[in-house]
Structures are given as structure tokens and as C-alpha cells.
Amino acid sequence: MKRRSFISRIGLGASAFIGGAGTIRADIPALPVYTYPNPGKFSEVLNRAGQFMVRLEILGVECVEPQQVLLEMQIPEKKLRRIGVYPFANHSPERQDNVFSFSVGKSFPYVFAIWIADPGPDTEISFLLNGKQMKFLLNELVNSKQLAFQQNGVQLSCNFLLDKEIGHFDPKSIGISPQEGAFSIAVMADPQGGDPTTPKAHPTRMKIHNAFIEDSVNRINDLNPKPAFTLVLGDVVDNQGEASHFEAMHRYLKNIQTPILYAIGNHETRYQAEFRPGYRMGEFNNFFSAQKAINGLEYLLYSFDLGEWHFIIWPDPLRAGFFETHPHYFDWLEEDLEQNKDKPTLFFQHVPAHPIGIDPLINYAESVVVKRMLLDRLATHGNVRFIFSGHVHIPVKASFKTAVAYQGMKMINLPAAGYRPRAFGEEELHGGPSQGVLIVEIQGNEARAYFKTVTEEVYPYPEKLPDFNEAAYPLWLNYKWQLDAGEEIKNGDFSAGLAHWHTRYVYQEDKAPSNQMEVKTFQDYKALYLHSTKRKYHIPGQDRLPQTINHLCQGILLDGKPRMIVLDYCLDKQSPSHTEAWAGGFVWLEGFQGSVKLLNMAYWVGKGTTQLTDRFTDQKEVPFLHFQLDDQLEYWQQARLNWLSDYQDQGLDISGLDRLLINLGTWHVNDGNSPGFGVYFSNIRLSDQLGESQVNQEKIKSMPNDKMWWMNKYEPFVHIAGEHRYIMSTDKKH
Question: Is the pTM higher than 0.90?
Fold first, then answer.
């Protein structure tokens, strides 16, 4: 009954949102133009403590291969307050006093931050870079915004850092009333609405989102007593942060009958946003404009106190280079947590720091090191009670199934307030819709959370959540080059189950799971069985993406001696007749020198996909090569892979590779009517007997294009009536 009533409201009462968009635009007020303050003089660069913050970024500039760096800071002790070291996707440095030794590649920078006490325009910053003396005055940096130095194929760039968008504020200043005893707060994740008439908008889906946003707002306004405030937890708007979308959302959200806070997500800025050269913050101007209009604040990262509790709002724009160009955010967070370590704390971030278990939430999330740096700081004092996130557009059922505790912190991913749910392969708890709001009820130093849908179903989150087993899923908080590795493949026959093989957390449906990974006895073999199929319960409006997550890996230490990989594989009974489906199995190999990936290749059974990526280690200069394994036979076959020979002549020096990652997996396009695909692997081993890559003594060939799937292959991928249509975007027109 509730669901019918809701649908009725969309069709009738919400006509201004779903019907034509013209009536929406007519009375949407323009928001005031905002420009992030650009320092014009020396004093405007200093932080609130009167210090000058300098950021150093080091990258290789000539070679893709890692370059050795010896960096010595030569700053007077009385001036040097501290040095922050941020390797990001690189190995940690060797350090002796203020001398750092490390290696760095061309794609993932090494970052340092330096806090200078009692600075003046003529304060000199001096350092040795690979033995060469380099120096500058702080005033030169202020005037130039960015300086760069090069030595021995390495570039060091430096710029100042600002903290104008960071702060702790008094909630009374924006109308949040002081609280004693019991109170509540409301959280809206991912409304993601806007003005459907904006160029390049997805008008159908945006109209749908807008209707759900209206009802989510109504659910908040129905609460009695009213929450102390409402937080919009990122993705306030759809698309790329266009001003017209913020203007439309301002009209909707200003109807909330509480003070409103904004967090930034990944749709408030351009997808190709740039944060260099210098300290470039103009990408956030539309967000700041909307935030200032809704509550007067101008913050990306901020905290405040209410009642006995401390609240922290963390920015997650999910843009390349953001945290590398804003490393001081982690230091501010560390200090804020230290200053408030005796207060129970709620932490809010747009992108989840705990695993969700479907694509695209591996690459479409923060990097391993950002998650690790964040969680290490949040767990330090034991006072962070909850970490709430959005971004996923998760159904209510999946929100409960993925909620975990990590070092005492409850981590919960919230269903969206406006956006349609992503496909998790099973029916919603109440049949849907999933949209709604989170309510956190606080009594003294205790808090409990529940989710209320737009159709008024109420789902309290349990007091106790299962602990996240970091050891069982090491890839969540480790790069592959950080995993344990040996000189030989261990348990290549799977006689010890999955021991020595590393897996990711993969979301499992309660019935008929779309991804299977288990060890079986098959035709006298003890073997790893992998199978992927389209997620079930495919209903209109779901947000779906191809799935490549069903794989495991093991690391091999390399000593420069060429060795082949030998393995046995067999398609399951149905798969030989399904090789025209957009699905398949793979042996994916990744080669590293230190932390730098210099080899990337896959051998495919069935169809292949370019979606098999790792954006946190892949480099554009390192090509991904694809090869074809025989897929026509339903019996065991032996593959001999001379991977080193197959990857020659790519213009790269791979003689220094010290680690090889072997990944075994299956994938599925997760769209259309493509059947599933299953494959067995066993007897994986290394061999000193070299030769060309073969299957059953037949030479392995490159993968033909007609067997590879990628987005926009034959025609542009578009939303059709709000739907993702991957197969239609892939098939040739006739």
C-alpha cells in the first residue's frame, strides 16, 4: 500500500519534478558567484597558526621505470616545525634525520609537507636533490605559485598549501541549537539531483532522482522532534558540479526544516578536475557557492561539537591527485582527533573506507593508501564510534550485509536519498524503493542509527556489527606489491584450499550468487573453480556495471632468471557453448619493480574486457597486452606461458622486475542475456624449460578485437531512459 501511494505521488504530486523540466527552471534563483581566495601577499599564505606550509612533489620525468632519489632537507632547526612524509603509492623511504632515500616512478608522486615556523618573505628553503643544491625564498614561491627543479631524471615541484577551507566552527553560528541530553541528526546520502535542462544532463534519471529527493526531504520534516541538523553526505548534485544543478538542489533542500550541512562527493566538480599548478581550488567554486548559500560556511574539511559529541566531515571528491595535492588534510585530522580524543565521535565521508564487494567499488573508490592513512588515524584513540558513507547507491539489504566494525568503529554505507540503487543481485528487503534518510539518535554518550525509507519502512542497524577480517581480505588495505610473495608458486594444485592465495571481499547474494570461487574435485583434479554470471533481480532503473571482481592472486619473487608459468585449465560443462557471451576467464599477470608496475597482460578464455584494471598502479605508458587461450574444448588443457617473451618490444626496460602477481579470475558484462562462464584451474607452477607460449602445443595468439569488450566500442555509451545499456553500446549496428 505504501509503495503504491509513493508511486502515485511521483505520477501526480511530483509532476513538477517528473513532468517537463521547464516549470522547474522558471523560479530557480541564481546562487551568488564564489571565487576561492587567491593569495596576493605573503601574509595571506600563512595558516591559522602563522606558519608557512610548503608541499614538495617528486616524480620521475624521463623514464617509466623507478628512479632513485636522495633528498636532504637543509632547513634551520629553529624554522622547521615538522616534516610530513606521504609515499602514497610508493614504498616508504629510508630516513636518517632529514635525509630521505626512496624510489619513485612517473605516475604516482612522492609527497612531503613542511611546516615553517616564524616565516618571513626572505626565509630560505634549501635542499639537496640527488647531490645538487637547490633553494628558493618563500616570497618567490608566493609570487610564482609553483617552482620546479630537475636532476638525474627526477623533478621536484613545490608549492604553498592553504587551510582556508579547513576548520572547526561553532554550530550556533549557522543556527544549530545547543543540545543537552537526547537529540537526533539526519543524513541524506547521494541525492544527486539537479536541473534536467542543463546541457549534458541525464534528464530522465535526474527527474527520477528529484522526485525521490522531495520525498526524502518530507521524511525528515515528518520527524518529531526535529533533528538538530541535516547533513547532505556528498553528491549533492548529479553530473559535474554545474551551477544550474546546485541552484536546482538549493530550491529542493532549503525546504528541510533544520539547519543543513554539506559534504563534498564526486559529482560536485568536473571529472577531469585539476589541482595543479600551485594550490588550485577553483574547481570547488560552485560547491562553495552552494554551501555558502545554504549555511554560510566555506569548508571542505571541518568539525564541530554538539552535546557530548564531536563531528567530523571529511571531503571525498574522488579526483585524481586530490589527496596528493592536499596532504595536510591528514595532519589536520590527526590534530583534531587528538584535541577531541575524550569525546565520542561521528565521522562522515562520501566514499566508503570499508569493502562493498562489487565493481566498480574497487577502482571507483579511494586508493589503498588513502584508506589506510585515514583508518589508522581514526582508530588511534578509540573514540570514533561510527563511520558513515554514501557513494555506492546501496540497497538497504546490502547496506546491512556490508556493515562491519573495524578496530571498534562501526562502518555503515548508506542508501541514497535520490539516486536509484546499484544492482546487488537480490530483491530489496521490502521490495523497494531503497531511497530514504539515516537518522542517528543520541542520548548522552550513546548513539544508535536507523534508516527510514521514503515509503516509511524503518530499519535499525544492529548494536553489534561483525568485525572486518583484514587478514582474510588483504587487498583492501594493501597494494599487490605489498603482499607476501615467494620464489615458487605455493599451493598451485589447491590441495590446501585457498591457502597462499589472496582474495578480495566479494558481495554474495543469499540465493544463486553471481560469483563463485571454491576448491572442488573435478575429473580427478583438485581444482579452483571460478564462475561469474549476470546479477539476478534485474529491474528497471538499477545502476549496473560489468563485474571483474571475482579473482584471487599470488605474488612471485623474481631474480632475473626467465621462467615460464605452466597451468592446467578446463571449462565447465556449459561454458564451451557460451563463448560468444560477453563473459570469460583470465590469467592476469602484473609485473612490478619496487612499487612501479612495468608489465600488464592477460591470457583470456572466452571473451575479454579492458575493464580489468587497477587505476592505483596502472600507468598509461605501460600497455595492457591481451592473448587468447583455447576455449572450444570441455576437457583439461595445459597452457605454457612465456610471459616475459610475450611482453618484449614494448619500449620498457623490464629487466629489473622483482615481483610478478598471478591473478586467476572470471568476469561478466552483467547486462543483456549473456549466460554465465565457469573455468577450473589447477597445477599452477613455474618451469625452467623455456619455449613459446602454447596451449596443447599450439602457439598462443593475440586476442582479436572482436573478442574484447570495452565501453563505447561501436557506439557511444549513453543512458537510455535512465538505463545503462552496455550490450547495446557494444554490438555493431546492422
Answer: yes
458 burial type by CB count under 10 A (0-12 exposed, 13-18 middle, 19+ buried): exposed
Q: Given CA atoms 348, 379, 56, 119 in this order, what sign does their dihedral have? A: positive
Integer CA distances (angstroms), 55 to 152, 206, 732, in order: 21, 40, 50
Instruction: Express each pLDDT in 617-664 by its tens digit.
Output: 999 999 999 999 998 777 899 999 999 999 999 999 999 999 999 999
Q: What angle do CA 229, 395, 430 make, to 5 degrees?
A: 100
Cell output for 175 = 543556527
Q: Is the Cβ–Cβ distance between 392 and 384 less than 8 Å?
A: no
Structural domains in the chain, sorted by start: 42-161 (2.60.40), 178-460 (3.60.21.10), 479-708 (2.60.120)
Q: Tell me the Ramachandran region of residue 712: left when phi exceeds 0, alpha when psi lies from -120 to 50, beta otherwise.
A: left
Asked whether the beta carbons of 159 and 148 are under 8 A apart, the reply is no
CA distance 267 to 287: 10
Give the residue carrying C-alpha cell 637547490: 134
Residue pair 437/216 in contact (Cβ under 8 Å)? The answer is yes
In angstroms, the CA 549 to CA 551 distance is 6
Cell 543512458, residue? 719
Q: Which three cell numbers stand for residue 208?
A: 527520477
Contacts of 203 (CB under 8 A, 6+ apart): 21, 196, 197
Does residue 397 contact residue 389 with C-beta atoms inside 8 Å?
no
Per the listing, cell 552535546 goes with 307
Q: What is the pLDDT of residues 135-149, one digit of tens each?
A: 999 999 999 999 999
CB 437 within 8 A of CB 184: no
